[in-house]
Amino acid sequence: MAVMSRSRTVIYIALGICAGALLSMLCVPLETGCGVDSYVHVGTKRKTSAVDMIDYGTDENGNQLNDEDFEPVLMTVNRPVVKKDIDRQRLIRMRYISSELSIKEKLFVGVMVSREEIDLESTTVGINKTLSHYVSKLVFFTKTNSEQSLSGMTIIAFPGEQVNVRMFQIWKYIYEHHGSDYDWFLVIQDDTYIYGDVFMEFLGHMSVGRDLYMGIPIHEAEMDVTFCSRDAGYMLSRNLLAKVGPYWEDCMRKSWNNVPDLEFGRCIQEHSNSHCSTNYEGSTFYAYDFEDKVLTDKEKNDADFQQALAIHHVMDTRTMYKLHKYFSERSLSQTLKQIAELQQNIEEISAYAPGGKSKLTWPVGVKSPFKTTSRFDVMGWEYFSMTHLYGLDDYEPKSPLIGANKQDIDEILTTTMARLNELHGNIYMLGRLVNGYRRFDPNRGMEYTLDMELKLHGDKREILKRVHLLRPLNKVEIVFMPYVTEYTQVTIIVPVVSGSQEQVRVFLDNYARICLETRDKSAVMLIFVYTPTEAMTMATEDIYSANKGYVSYLERKYPGSHLSWISVKTSLPSPIAIMDVVSKKFASDTLFLFTNANMEIAAEFLNRVRMNTIAGWQVFFPIPFSQYDPKIIYADLPNPNRIDISKTAGHFDTYLFEHASFYNSDYMNARKLWDEKHPGSETDHIQSDLDLFEMFLSTKLHTFRAVDPALKLHYHQRICQPSLKEEQYQRCLEGRAVGLASKAQLAMLVLEQQQKLAAEKGNI
């Protein structure tokens, strides 16, 4: 039966194929041209030869050409390829991406200062403290040039007592210097308070492409002009400013009225036909007159006060700070209320989501915990008490609870007690912390689990409670940084000590290949360090003569290269002692990279040095990838003579601080400050590379320290001077031990040695 069924299937398939072939033959005409020999015009259904339709032209004798006259010509291998000279216009990029994309800042605020002098108790300073961190730009326009400069304030002076002239001068300055950089321009008096958070939200609901003159309108019937009162401030859009900006000076000459607001509104109306309005796209500019008033419950319950964007006639700084405190607390309360509502909505909706409420994370609205993909991703908990931390790393399992860690734990305990008393009616006192655990979750933040022994008020009983806390990660914040480029010349300072001559030759070869051949903007200064004994024989037997000769050879081979060297006599070549000599030989704007000859030169790393080192702002201490001892890691393998970043080849050495980049001016200022804090200290006492790092930490400069994968160091045995401070000496020994090999490699080495000893013992 199975054979018959299979035979029927084959017969049906064969019949289907035959029927399909027969139908296709019936549908296709018996005589049809192929390829390009013929084609049919749809309109005439006329068969036309393709050769007849193509005109190939004629030869030099006038004979008609056809497709057989065209033969392919093969290019021979030895025939040179002719490059087409295409004149391509060089693309010029903008300095900032916002300029290239025409992205504008939101709000420019100008403050007309009425006082002759600005002091710390003036409302001008109050406006700066309460408004500057909300708006894009805040500029103060004064009547006189003040000799006293206040940090964090941009002050522009327009001398003169004519209010009309000063008004137009301010707007002329705004138009010429900032007219194309912002979407909105607001000018207020120095007695006007504006809560920036609410005002920026107000602007976020309005379109920016309209002609807008906004404020509290006043109509002048005789002149038929509707202008904005400057008491509460007024605002112009960028489009309107672009229209009337070219006429400010002309309007200033024609102004005759003693009311500057009227003249300003008349100028706008004349050149743009725009009037002052208080409403735009459903948004209303509200103002509140605070003259002869104090902040009481009456004002707080006033509807006009609650919805005001600008509060004018605030006569003293104290009142301005009170207003700011009130509006900040109100905004915080509204935000917390919104968070609670969102959390409630999430809980309600989660019942209908896959998994139901069981999949709801805690706290509600926070990202779910990090999911590990292997055992190496498991996040461990740190145990802590009120005095110590346990389990930070394998080399230091117990450490005292000090500094930022202590501040963190104290804040967590304070928050816990405040929250417990808030929930249970202020009945608890902290007895002691029994157990504390914390870990960092990359998705959520720092998680805490506390076992606490609590005491009850008026009761001798003690109870135990376990609480869970989360310090969530905040949003990424964009921090202002000065503009830097990758075209700054880097001067590489390389100390050379006895025993490193061969590595210096390798370093110079790499530098020639990476920098000199590519004409990179860099320079190298070798610091040949002589001990007192070596210095005595320098004239007859110079241990660095081969290195100095090779530098001369490279200078001849690469004309224009910046290669130099100096000799220094010292028994302890610390970075500070060397830089004290070097800094005097260069200009103050020189960018230094202090390193050693064991590094692999990389253009990527040099560019990062240029970008991460900012004069007067930031110094850079990269964490290098240090190679393990090749005698251990390549004992049974050929040495590749290159460093690959892997856990078996090396590690990022957090013990090293001898690689640093900084500007000469910053070094000299830091050195001066260091001498003032440590009077009488000579450079002989500054022996550790950590001293250079601590010296910059004592300044107001940003000290940027981060892992740099392009900074790779060949292995060299670290020498720990016994004359170092005890803490520095122990740290040096730890760094030297960690830099030998990984734990697994050292364990295998010990195991192999034990097996050899056991084998030798067995043979005996």
From TrEMBL:
Query: What start and end residues bound the annotated signal peptide?
Result: 1-24
- One GO molecular-function entry: glucuronosyl-N-acetylgalactosaminyl-proteoglycan 4-beta-N-acetylgalactosaminyltransferase activity
Enzyme class, spelled out? transferase
What are the record's GO terms for cellular component? Answer: Golgi cisterna membrane
Q: How does it sit in the membrane?
A: Single-pass type II membrane protein
User: Could you tell me the superkingdom of the organism this chain comes from?
Assistant: Eukaryota
Record's subcellular location: Golgi apparatus, Golgi stack membrane
Instruction: Output the Gene3D superfamilies linked to this UniProt entry.
Output: 3.90.550.50
Q: Which UniProt keywords apply?
A: Golgi apparatus, Membrane, Signal, Signal-anchor, Transferase, Transmembrane, Transmembrane helix
Documented EC number(s): 2.4.1.-
PANTHER family reported for this sequence: CHONDROITIN SYNTHASE, HEXOSYLTRANSFERASE
**Similarity comment:** Belongs to the chondroitin N-acetylgalactosaminyltransferase family.
* Record protein name field: Hexosyltransferase
